[in-house]
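Course assignment 3, question 2. Fill in each field.
Student: A.L.
Task: Predict the tertiary structure for the chain below.
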Amino acid sequence: MAEVVYLTEERYLELQKELIELKTKGRKEVAQKIAEARSHGDLSENAEYDSAKHQQELLEMRIAKLEETLSKAQIIRPEELPNDKIYILSKVKVKNLKLNKVFEYTLVSPEEADFERGKLSVTSPIGKALLGKKPGDVVEVNIPAGKTQFEILEISR
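Answer field:
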């Protein structure tokens, strides 16, 4: 069976919108670039044509990836998940005991991860270590900077 991709409704709609945009406007633009490059004559030494064909290839790969993701998507809603432990979509306040700093993360699917916005993938080293834990627990995580410990301070939705 295909692996399920958990998405928030917001992210699902964003991906759907991107797919529609790429299939309509994106394909049309690439087709125009190919037609224009073709009109310049000899295709064997036409860098514009090669570039346009490459863009088309990348576009079709992105469309296929989006279609695959959306076909496996299951929408998850925070209010449907328990709040006793850390699950996907939990907002977690943790203290990095090595740095003595507090960080806040929301655990999300890999498709929604955005470290800059505090959205941590459940498949990342920190995400995996936090799943299933409760406030007061201390977890040890291997991160690129070495081993570090996080104390779980708070869980919310």
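Instructor remarks: Residues 9-38 form the longest helix (30 residues). Helices lie at 9-38, 47-72, 125-130.
Grade: pending
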